[in-house]
Specification:
This protein has six helices and no strands. By secondary structure, it is mainly α.
């Protein structure tokens, strides 16, 4: 049963990450014609397009994708307990779904910055994925880069944001119930 739980959680998390990336790409106005952006849009379109007919966007924010991401995050706390024969509390599942969605967005930011840092050591020249990652992380890294500029070509902003993300994670684990177990 653990293998089924693992595979189901992996599938839900993958869809959740794609949906969060779709919203994030729209918010930072990333290059729509980039192959990475095209992949995210094409993979998520079958889920998002039908819901867009019901839930319109609001001020440039794709509410349908956000609602869908929230539904998938909440389903994690409904389907897995159902499969394991445990009790289901819908109110708790709705709360945990919201917390899980927020935490997964932070995890995604961490992963993208880590991959971006690793790519900066390996990739030479133009890479479309690296360009999208720069567009995605620019709103978070730019304020840190204004305070701490590059030192001898070494960009410490990613390291500083890593530290800040971990501090925020530790603080939220103490303030918000269930944060640390998700």
């Amino acid at each position: 049963m653990e293998a089924i739980n693992y595979l189901l959680k992996f599938a839900i998390d993958a869809v959740l990450m794609i949906l969060v990336l779709r919203v994030w790409l729209q918010l930072v106005r990333a290059d729509f014609y980039n192959p990475f952006s095209q992949f995210i849009v094409k993979v998520s379109n079958p889920l998002v397009i039908p819901l867009r007919r019901i839930i319109p966007g609001l001020g440039g924010v794709d509410l349908a994708t956000i609602v869908l991401a929230y539904i998938f995050a909440t389903l994690t706390f409904i389907i897995i307990p159902l499969l394991n024969g445990g009790p289901i509390d819908i109110i708790t599942a709705l709360y945990l779904g919201l917390i899980y969605l927020i935490k997964q967005a932070g995890v995604l930011l961490f992963i993208i910055m880590l991959v971006m840092a690793l790519m900066s050591w390996v990739v030479q020249g133009y890479n479309p994925t690296q360009m999208i990652f720069h567009q995605l992380t620019a709103p978070v890294l730019a304020p840190v880069r204004r305070i701490i500029p590059s030192i001898g070509g070494l960009d410490l902003s990613v390291l500083i944001v890593f530290l800040l993300l971990n501090v925020v994670n530790i603080l939220l684990a103490g303030w918000i119930p269930y944060w640390s177990i998700l």
